[in-house]
Amino acid sequence: MLVFAGPQLGPPAGTKREWLLTNGIGGFASSTVSGINTRKYHGLLVAALNPPVERRLLLAKLEEEVCVESRKYSLFCSQTVGGYSGHGFEFLYEFHRFPFPTYIYRLENIFIRKEIMMVRGENTVLILYHVLNPDNLNFRLCLFPLVTNRDYHWTVRKNKWPFLTSIQDNRVMIEAYPGAPKLYLSADRGRLQRAGFWYYDLFYELEAERGLDAVEDLYCPAKFEIESNRSLSWALRASTEDLAIDQEWVLKQRNESLDRMKRLGRALPQTDNHIKVLTLAADDFIVERRNTGKKTIIAGYPWFTDWGRDAMIALPGLTLVTGRYRDAREIIKGFVDCVQEGLIPNCFSDDSGCPHYNTVDASLWLFWAVYKYLEYTGDWDFVNEVYPCLCAIVDDYCRGTRYGIKVDKDGLVTQGEEGMALTWMDARIAGQPVTPRRGKAVEINSLWHFAARFLAYLTSRFEGPRSGKEFTKLADLVRSSFVREFWFEPGGYLYDVVGEVDKDATLRCNQVIAVSLPTRLLNSEQEKSVIRKLWQELYTPYGLRTLSPLSEGYVGTYSGNEHERDRAYHQGTVWVWPWGHFVTAVSRIYADYSGRLMLIKKMVKPLLIHLEDGCVGNVSEIFDGDFPHSPRGCFAQAWSVGEVLRVYAEEVIGVKGRHKIDIQD
């Protein structure tokens, strides 16, 4: 599984498939199956200097040359402004994604296997070469590291950086400019000599498509080489820390990585390959946050940091289905500790890591995460610990908090300020929301009702001054107001937003939350009507459209420059995470249908097949609304992986929380 050969290796097919490795602290390595970097985010070492943020590209790639007897072969390949520089993909024999991204080259009857792995908890990448040389031919393998030292969102051209280089034995230290983070390269043997040249005009095709700077120059500080007439193994280490390495150390790191992957793969009592791949993908997003000392969830690679909303939605699939209960506790506690005025952080900035609180729904998704945690673990002690925070959130919403977030007299949550986009549909152009949703949003109030019911359930079990009746009364008020205000009888579905003056009947995927949560807002006929409508106009093989194609303003392709992409982001683009709630709703509503399991399997299958496309072994953030629904956005997204994993485990395999929580009135 996830092995590629032949026409799948070279461009264009080989540049459409990507791979990702992570180190558990926000750093990563990534490229394409062909070995051509098509993004400015591609590189062998993107280091998180203040985990999990302050990410910098230090080692972009290695260019390899091989001499067999007197015949020279270039294994490297880069796309430049003038075309391809090198055609190394012509010598590619196979690419394997697991256990590590592995390129296998064939030169005559010599096979070279190149494995790439990251060291857990370090900004360190290892590149391992294994040469199979059956006829004992004389060969020389040369490595040219192409380095830089930039924020991973930028590109850099040739400049006056001195790239101070210090060589000792098989190790070299590179300091791009005085005070820059140092990069250390070391080999376990062979020769090392100074190089010192610029590699010009690398062209990043996907950045050009996104209307961003797409040309870059990289620097080569040194050359590593080894000669032999035997089969051999050779390793190169790139890191922000200095260390001399040998074969024993390299083998130890490799074995530890393999052992860890095996442990992760045994988290579920299933031998299903899809579960194993998704479980390993889940691990990519769970990282350490240095300033809290706790785990958090990276929302997506290659460009997102940790986002509160994304973390709470992704948490059940990433941590609970996979048995990582301790990580789940840390993640929840980390966000609870950051609550201000009833709001958990929307996101953390990519430089200082300071939190931003411009969200109405992240705090409400916290209730969902705690509910699922309790369902899987039965850990009442921890829930009791965070219970005061849950109460405080509801109290702050009732009193009114930032950004116009408050509870109206009908019990429903309203929100919004000029220029703000506080729901998950948060794209803005020139400071104005692309999808204005100011007022009472359907998914916000679905979550609000769930939060009140869940809090009533918890309060009835904990000793304290609060009464479960006060939250039950609130939930009852919310439900009666919800049905009255949101049910759109002519369409047989729910309004998306109820404003002060009018109601927005635009058909969007947000209403799926009203029928997916374990609390009932609608009667059974209304629920089925909503599901049918979403199935008719929003459902695709890879998720739900954010807007019906029949609606004015629908954009079926997510492409173009930043403004063009922002216009499409929530205006028809397909998202995976609402699909998870849709499948859960379908599974419950059609529970008595004899073909339910077959139906759910059909719904899940396209996303399982997608594991072989895009970022191999991962799930994309979004897809085009129009056929053929090409993957877009982040090539690996936490809540996409989390929801596919949760749905596949819970609804197909039958792995669910063992602790029943009945919070219905």
From TrEMBL:
Gene3D superfamilies cross-referenced by the UniProt entry: 1.50.10.10
Organism superkingdom: Bacteria
InterPro entries given in the database record: 6-hairpin_glycosidase_sf, 6hp_glycosidase-like_sf, AGL/Gdb1, GDE_C, Glycogen_debranch_arc, Glycogen_debranch_N
Gene Ontology MF terms in the entry: 4-alpha-glucanotransferase activity; amylo-alpha-1,6-glucosidase activity
Gene Ontology process terms (BP): glycogen catabolic process
Domain Glycogen debranching enzyme bacterial and archaeal type N-terminal: 17-229
Domain Glycogen debranching enzyme C-terminal: 281-646
SUPFAM superfamilies in the record: Six-hairpin glycosidases
Protein name, per record: Glycogen debranching enzyme
Biological source species: Syntrophothermus lipocalidus (strain DSM 12680 / TGB-C1)
Taxon lineage: Bacteria, Bacillati, Bacillota, Clostridia, Eubacteriales
